[in-house]
Specification:
Blueprint (H helix, E strand, L loop, with lengths): L1 E5 L2 H12 L5 E5 L12 E5 L7 H17 L4 E5 L12 H12 L4 E4 L7 E4 L2 E4 L2 E2 L18 H6 L5 E5 L1 H5 L3 H10 L2 E6 L4 H10 L5 E4 L1 H11 L16 E5 L4 H12 L4 E3 L8 H19 L14 E3 L4 H11 L1 H21 L4 E5 L1 H11 L3 E9 L2 E5 L5 E5 L8 H5 L2
Parallel strand pairs: 1-3, 1-4, 2-3, 4-11, 5-10, 5-11, 9-10, 12-14, 12-15, 13-14, 15-18
Antiparallel strand pairs: 2-16, 6-7, 7-8, 16-17, 17-18
Length: 419
């Protein structure tokens, strides 16, 4: 069994569907599992929310997940982080990996954030977003994890107690990954950042690392491992796209989410923006948004109720352009403003479900985590993808969730998924 530990909820769905595409039966849990899988899975993904929390807490939660997975037979552990290597200067990628590697007594941990299908590639240890270096991309201005250094060994060594090195693209393509790992081990290097610029590079790495006890990276490398370990062929995710009343909750401030929010507004969808400067109380922000939604329903349907089944769903968002976001953070503080909005979005999600919404589309890892936690969703079955790496999740309660990482999807993803 492959056991994956993801540092946010959208990343967990991304890695789960990467495994499932290869025919590996994959179970996804949100938070520490409160139940056993219904049948023996080929992979289990535990979605944590550890990317930006206190380091000690992130480490403790990750070790608890590791213990649960090992007790149930995980032969390979995969630590999933974002393809843009999202982390603060202090962590939490480095501290969590240090703890996992120590617990498993792994001398060298191979890893890469490369995900070519999403425009993330690593070359000579440098991470590119599209055709620009990470530090020159939109990630330089991320509100919680601004990435100002593109050279990943240096970034990781700043967070970890151990050294980091590189497996070059030439070494990967010559089939020398295993030999290079042995060299790094002999040099006392614990983390091996593996170059990959094409899916074929990740497939080659997956074959070489099929028996590695601990591997880390974005969903791309997980897909390479799954291809090497798959028990069946042709494992495309199947299932009907869900129907029913829908709503979109967007909290990400990534460039792609801003495009997707604009596409919804330009299409004439009802939209309500959460403004923490005007009202910093999460409960009051949520009450205002739900009153707005109720008013839309009362106009569309006498007597109220869900007003958007079979038509365009409404949007509630807190996404802001960089300049506006800076003003909010300067006034309220980065952590406080994020906490206000995540709490409000969680309360709004709960209120929407109480009002009959059966499809929730969320944009942003922190937003998705807040929504799933507020709803008490423990996990679900992976369904069809609305975009690459963005699958529908069918929960036992009948609620369907689409949890979108901030940078994922075409500009019309939110618009199309919520029709």
């Amino acid at each position: 069994m492959i056991g994956a530990i993801a540092d946010d909820f959208t990343g967990a769905t991304d890695v789960a569907v990467a495994l499932r595409r290869r025919g590996i039966r994959t179970v996804l849990f949100f938070g520490m599992p409160r139940e056993e899988a219904a049948a023996e899975p080929g992979a289990v993904v535990i979605a944590l929310k550890t990317r930006t929390i206190a380091r000690d807490t992130a480490v403790a939660q990750s070790l608890s997940a590791l213990e649960w997975l090992r007790a149930r037979g995980a032969e390979q552990v995969y630590f999933k982080y974002c393809s843009t290597f999202d982390s603060t200067v202090e962590g939490n990628i480095g501290p969590v990996l240090d703890a996992l590697a120590d617990a498993l007594d792994v001398p060298v941990v191979p890893m890469t954030p490369s995900s070519p299908e999403h425009g993330r590639t690593q070359y000579n240890g440098y991470l590119f977003v599209g055709d620009v270096l990470l530090a020159e991309s939109h990630m330089r201005h991320h509100p919680l994890t601004p990435m100002t250094d593109s050279y990943l060994p240096r970034v990781l060594e700043g967070q970890s107690a151990y050294r980091a090195g590189v497996v070059t693209l030439a070494q990967v393509r010559r089939g020398e990954l295993a030999r290079r790992l042995a060299e790094l081990r002999a040099e006392g290097v614990r983390y091996a950042l593996v170059d990959a610029v094409e899916d074929a590079d990740l497939a080659a790495a997956g074959r070489a690392l099929a028996d590695a006890p601990l591997v880390a990276g974005a969903a791309g490398l997980a897909g390479g491992l799954a291809a090497a370990r798959a028990r069946t062929e042709g494992g495309d995710v199947t299932g009907a796209v869900p129907a029913g009343p829908a709503a979109v909750l967007a909290g990400s401030c990534s460039a792609r989410t801003l495009e997707q929010v604009a596409a919804m507004i330009d299409a004439g969808r009802p939209a309500h923006r959460l403004d923490p400067l005007a009202d910093p109380d999460p409960g009051s922000l949520a009450a205002g948004a739900l009153a707005w939604y109720d008013a839309l329903g009362a106009v569309a349907r006498p007597g109220g109720g869900p007003a958007f089944e079979g038509s365009g769903a409404p949007l509630v968002y807190s996404s802001l352009e960089p300049a506006a976001l800076r003003r909010v953070q300067e006034a309220l503080g980065g952590e406080r403003s994020a906490a206000i909005l995540e709490s409000a979005l969680g309360l709004i999600a709960r209120g929407l479900v109480e009002r009959g919404v059966t499809r929730l589309i969320t944009a942003g890892g922190e937003t998705s985590g807040a929504v799933v936690s507020a709803l008490g969703v423990s996990g679900g079955v992976i369904g069809p993808e609305a975009a690459r790496g963005v699958p529908w999740i069918f929960t036992p309660s009948g609620l369907s969730l689409l949890l979108k990482s901030g940078n994922f999807g075409d500009p019309d993803l939110l618009l199309e998924a919520s029709r």
